[in-house]
Amino acid sequence: MPGHKGRGYIARDDVTEIEGADVLYRPEGIIAESEKNAARIFGAARTVFSCEGSSLGIRALVYLLKTYALRTGKNPLILAARNVHSSFVSACGLNGVSPEWLYGEGGNLLSVRLTAESVDQALSRTGAFAVFITSPDYLGHLCDISALSEVCKKHGALLAVDNAHGSYLRFTDPCLHPVALGADLCVESAHKTLPCLTGTAYLHVAPSAPAFFAENADFACYLFASTSPSYLLLASLDDFNGKAKTYAEGVKRTAERVGRLRASLADAGYGLYGEEPLKLTLRPASYGYTGNEIADLLRSKGIEAEYADRDFIVLLLSPCNREESLAEAEKTLLGLKKRTAAGKESVPSPVVCGKAAEIRDALYAPWEEIPTEEAEGRVLSGLVLSCPPAVPVAVCGERLNADAVSALLYYGYRTVKVML
Prior knowledge:
- There is one protein chain.
- This protein has about 425 residues and is α/β, with parallel strands linked by helices.
- The protein folds into three domains: about 230 residues, Type I PLP-dependent aspartate aminotransferase-like (Major domain) (Aspartate Aminotransferase, domain 2), CATH 3.40.640; about 90 residues, Aspartate Aminotransferase, domain 1 (Alpha-Beta Complex), CATH 3.90.1150.10; about 70 residues, Ornithine Decarboxylase, Chain A, domain 4 (Alpha-Beta Complex), CATH 3.90.100.10.
- The strands form four sheets. Strands 1-7-6-5-4-2-3 form a seven-stranded mixed sheet, sandwiched between helices. Strands 8-9-11-10 form a four-stranded antiparallel sheet. Strands 12-14 form a two-stranded antiparallel ribbon.
- Helix 2 packs across helix 8.
- It is globular.
- It starts with about 30 loop residues before the first helix and ends with a strand.
């Protein structure tokens, strides 16, 4: 293997785990060396490569958390911010985990606003042994990880962060990376913000985490990963190790440019959202447009947004963006005629539904697909979402209420799978 035998420009570097190429989740040679180099770059005690994105890292992370809790006699409850990626929900189903959700205050479906005080109260009330958050979230909001870390340490709980969109935060000034700010565990996609191929990701174990996590991270990934990892993707991760210093300089330069762009758009009357340095999120209702309208306009200029819906448009930037593309985006946005602002924004808040079944039981239960309008009172079986952003409106096993049905229709979901 592979059957192409190295013929072709791309295929020539597409090898498998042959002699001298090391074994991804039992590394002793070149992969082990490359992962150690990455760990040094990101300040981790242990870094494990993924060729299957952050989704693999999250599945492994949930397994590690539950296993550690059971081995140490801790309460195996995980508190999780409700704006999790779908991979966390499926990981809970696969691992038989039943999280308790944190809804925050003043946020929306894609962006839960957590405070250290609210997490402190939740930990005091539940005795949970771990907190799982998404930061930065899909709209670019950054949690106060330092404060959350202090609260978790106070309660002897672990802090795990889905940093899928924030690998580059290691190189900002000041450093905003979760590991540097006190997170114990961190999963992130290299391909989203670093010059790495699609599907590349890291699972970082911080120096603060119990040794169990570094010692068992490979096995946890092996449980859920393909046994045929792509060496093209591994080579991409290794290649970045040698470019990190140069890329760090580019991140700082680009963050300054994005800051100027953000200021000019705010002065023009655009609503802004989030604090992430290289993500520009607009709330264009204040300018009289929907996010989808702005995205279509930018697309006509050769600029593709990361995400858009009626309320938001997200531009995900990196040092690999050329100045001319940033200038074109700025010119297009500022040249757009301002219209009368839309009515009061009604972005759905995180939906609070009652739990009727465990996630795992709901996923495996018999189901039927029905029109969303008829779903109130029924128990959700399968996840209802699209990617991006892959944030579930409701979670498997929850009884859908009127707010959930309304939010599902708001985001265009016309049918849902419910338990029989």
